[in-house]
């Protein structure tokens, strides 16, 4: 494992499964370095899932330069569930956010998400997304700010790029199915929705950018 943050007051842990992401990985990592939230208040946990390109070396480079980055290298698991669970076991933040390795954050994203979650008492936060590179994003959830919505309102938003209160996940033992399980992220998100007391939708700014890769994958 490369890198370790030393501060115990981590507000949010960003968990990233990484497999052969290539140059797009730097865009994500740079967007995390640029966060307005103080670096002692967040950590980045990247799980290199047996990459065969230079993704592992890129992660080590960032961990060497930025103390809030932590990197684990493991043999390929074949699916993102296991790396996400491993990152969750390592997480120390009040909240966790599951990012994809080819996406990116706006620079105020972590600061604003954690502030809103603290103010609203949120267990799950859906931040406004924007698609890039031809990626379509359903924006109907983000037409206005919602401090608390019901499961029926957000039930079709099952992608994992959300912020979750870690204590809730631990109390209800919510984890991603491991192995090649279809819709494993949706299973995780739906369990979290039903466990949550407060689900919030943030629509004031764009928090997260979803990308379609050149190879056609998301």
UniProtKB/TrEMBL annotation:
It comes from Candidatus Nesterenkonia stercoripullorum. Residues 13-167 form the Glycosyltransferase 2-like domain. GO terms for molecular function: hexosyltransferase activity. This is Glycosyltransferase. It holds the Pfam family Glycos_transf_2.
């Amino acid at each position: 494992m490369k890198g370790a943050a030393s501060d115990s007051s981590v507000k949010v842990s960003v968990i990233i499964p990484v497999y052969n992401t290539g140059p797009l990985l730097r865009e994500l990592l740079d967007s995390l370095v640029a966060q307005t939230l103080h670096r002692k208040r967040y950590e980045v946990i990247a799980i290199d899932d047996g990459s065969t390109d230079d993704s592992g070396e890129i992660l080590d480079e960032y961990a060497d330069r930025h103390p809030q980055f932590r990197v684990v290298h493991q043999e390929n698991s074949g699916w993102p569930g296991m790396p996400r669970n491993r990152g969750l076991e390592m997480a120390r933040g009040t909240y966790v956010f599951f990012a994809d390795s080819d996406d990116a954050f706006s620079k105020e994203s972590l600061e604003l998400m954690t502030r809103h979650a603290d103010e609203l008492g949120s267990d799950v936060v859906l931040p406004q997304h924007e698609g890039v590179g031809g990626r379509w994003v359903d924006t109907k959830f983000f037409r206005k700010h919602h401090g608390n919505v019901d499961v029926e309102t957000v039930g079709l938003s099952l992608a994992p790029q959300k912020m979750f209160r870690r204590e809730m996940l631990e109390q209800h033992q919510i984890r991603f199915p491991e192995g090649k399980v279809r819709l494993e992220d949706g299973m995780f998100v739906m369990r979290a929705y039903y466990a949550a007391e407060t689900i919030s939708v943030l629509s004031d700014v764009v928090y997260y950018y979803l990308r379609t890769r050149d190879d056609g994958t998301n």
